Each structure stands twice: as C-alpha cells, then as structure tokens.
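W.,

You were right to be curious about this one. When I first looked at the sequence I had no strong expectations either way, so I just let the prediction run and decided to look at it fresh. Below is the sequence, 263 residues in total, followed by the output.
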Amino acid sequence: MTNPLRAIGEGTTSIRREAAETLLPRVRTPEDVLPPLMVLLTIVTGIVDALAYLRLGHVFVANMTGNVVFLGFAAAGAHGLSVPGSLLALGCFLPGGAAAGRLAGRLGENRLRQLRAAAAVQLVLCLVAVAVAAAAGDELGTASRYALIAFLALAMGVQNATARRLAVPELTTTVLTLTLTGIAADSRLGGGSGAKTVRRVLSVAAMLLGAVIGALLLLHVTPVAPIALASGILAVVLGAADCGSRQGQAPDQPPVGSASPSL
C-alpha cells in the first residue's frame, strides 16, 4: 500500500521541479532561457490589457478574442463599448503580427535572435506609448487613447506572432483558454497524467499578476506607470535574449547581416 505522506512528498517535489524548470531553468543551451522570458512577456500582456480595458475604452490590445466579442455585442445594440477602439486594436494587431512574421523569416531558425528582434520592436513601440501617455497626463483625450491603442496593439501583435513562432510549450503569452482547457483535460480527474500542469498554472498566474499590477498602477499612480513597467520588463527580455543569442553564436560565425570577408 502506498504511503500517503510519501506520495504527497513526491508530488511536492515534482511541482517544485517543474516550477524551477520554467522559472529558473538550468542553462545547458542558450535557448533554455526561453521559458522564464515567456513568463515575463505573459506578465506584460496582463499589464497592457489592464490599462487598455480600464482606461482606453473597454478594449483589449493583446487578447483579440475580447475585441471580436465586443464588436458582436455592439452590433446587437449593447452600450458602453468602443467600436472604433476595438476595430483600431484589431487593425493594428494584425500588421504587428505580419511584421513579426516577416522579421522572423529573415533571421533564420535561431529563436533567441527572433525574440531579441521582436522585443526590440516592442520596446520601441511601448516607449512611444509612454511618451504619448506622459504628454496626455492623467486625463487621456480621444486622440491620445487611440494613439495608445494603436502603438500597444502593434506591439502585442509582434509579441503574439513571435510567441507562436517560438512555440515554447504551454507558454503562449496571451491565449489562456487552451491553457485552462489543458489543465482540466490533462488532469488526473480528467483521465490524464497531469503533465505540464505546473507550467500552465504559472502561465495563468503570470497574466493574473500582470493584470493586478497594471490595474493598481493605473488606479493609484498614473496611466504612464503601467506602460513604463511593461517597457522595463521588455528591456529585461531584450537584454537576456541578446546575451543568449550571442552565446549561441559560434566563434567563427559572422554576425547576421555582416559582410563575408574578401578572399
């Protein structure tokens, strides 16, 4: 008969091991840093969508499913929704994703280079959003709201397309519906093994944490604060991806885009 205390201890050890593999992995290859970086990007998603929904007219700049549903509500006559805002978010998110796809295609299969380039583009767009929010002050006008939606949706389109291309298991940085489905369907109660549950829960927790922090900064500080924090996190991701991509480059391999030496 299985000892219940031993089973609990083994379960706790397994949870801690899986959490460590996601948040603090042993770096055997440069790409081993990807899971914690994707968790950071998931926090960014929660932060910017908190700002977008609470201050930019009940829209989302990262979770496009919400905007599609809002447009359906508005078409049925529901009030309090921003049709132009939702359309603008969708219209900017898609070009952001297309640009990220083009960029990744030019960088080859090195996933850290792809993440570095995407994070750099995101950071620039978020810094522009910081400038817009700072110029507008606490009372965001229509023009500044639309500008923030546009820049942030572009940035999140870049992030989503890059996350899709990187394909880090269970860390999409945005879409949690499938993540929650996996938690339930693959659980022991659902007849599964419970594999990857810890990573999926961490993904959900990261977005929840980002949403809480973003809302607190928005409600108790200024609209600039959540965007500035998101920019800071993106700078960390950019720096880590840059270090990793340099470590993964062979000593005799020229940097991407550099000219070959003349013979």
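Here's what jumped out at me. The two ends are 74 Å apart (CA to CA). And, maybe more interesting for your project: Confidence is low (pLDDT under 50) at residues 250-263.

Coffee later to discuss?

I.
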